[in-house]
Amino acid sequence: MSGFSHYSEEGIPKMVDISGKDVTFRTAEASGFVSMKNDTLDLIDKKLLPKGDLFETAKIAGIMAAKKNSDLIPMCHPLNLTFVDVEVKINYKRVGVDIKSEIHLEGKTGAEMEALAAVSVAALTVYDMCKAVDKSMIIQDIRLIKKTGGKSDYRNNSDKF
């Protein structure tokens, strides 16, 4: 399994040893989109969904997911996050809801997975809150936008958010 950091030479899954890495300031941003019917978007906009305020609930769900990421993804290290934000907003042009997360920390490994988990769970929450009125929604375009810190920085120049 040479070349895969989460496997031993014998092919056994393992967590990467980061004990020798330096602590640096790191950030990660991710985004995603939930497409839906126009009628569903109108209900969200007018705050008429049966389950309550979509924006607050999805934001809190995303923040909680980032904080619990190492419980969800087996080989992720528990991180001491210093900042988590999730933005949820209506996109009338694309007919759906945009979701974006931003994570900060000082640590030995990056927060890409936390940013992606935040967007994913916020999107699932949007789906859950709207499924009574629209089962045809599609969760899509979940991706890393940017990461800084550590050995390499990354920027996705095709971001639509």
What attributes characterize this protein structure?
alpha+beta, 161 residues, five-stranded antiparallel beta sheet, Alpha-Beta Plaits, single chain, 4 helices
SSE diagram, text form:
Blueprint (H helix, E strand, L loop, with lengths): L23 E12 L2 H8 L8 H14 L1 H4 L8 E11 L4 E12 L4 H19 L7 E11 L5 E2 L6
Antiparallel strand pairs: 1-3, 1-4, 2-3, 4-5
Describe this structure in words.
With 161 residues, the chain is α+β, with helices and mostly antiparallel strands. It has one domain (24-155): Alpha-Beta Plaits (2-Layer Sandwich). Helix content is 28%, strand content 30%. It contains 4 helices and 5 strands, in the order E-H-H-H-E-E-H-E-E. The protein has helices at residues 38-45, 54-67, 69-72, 112-130, and strands at residues 24-35, 81-91, 96-107, 138-148, 154-155. A 5-stranded antiparallel beta sheet has the order 2-3-1-4-5, covered by helices on one side. The model has no long low-confidence stretch (mean pLDDT 91).
State the gist of this model.
Helix content is 28%, strand content 30%.
Second CATH tier, the architecture: 2-Layer Sandwich
Distance between the termini: 37 Å
Task: Output the CATH homologous superfamily.
Answer: Molybdopterin cofactor biosynthesis C (MoaC) domain
Shape: elongated
Could you name the CATH topology? Alpha-Beta Plaits
* Average pLDDT number: 91
| Share in helix | 25-40%
Integer-rounded radius of gyration: 17 Å
Number of strands: 5
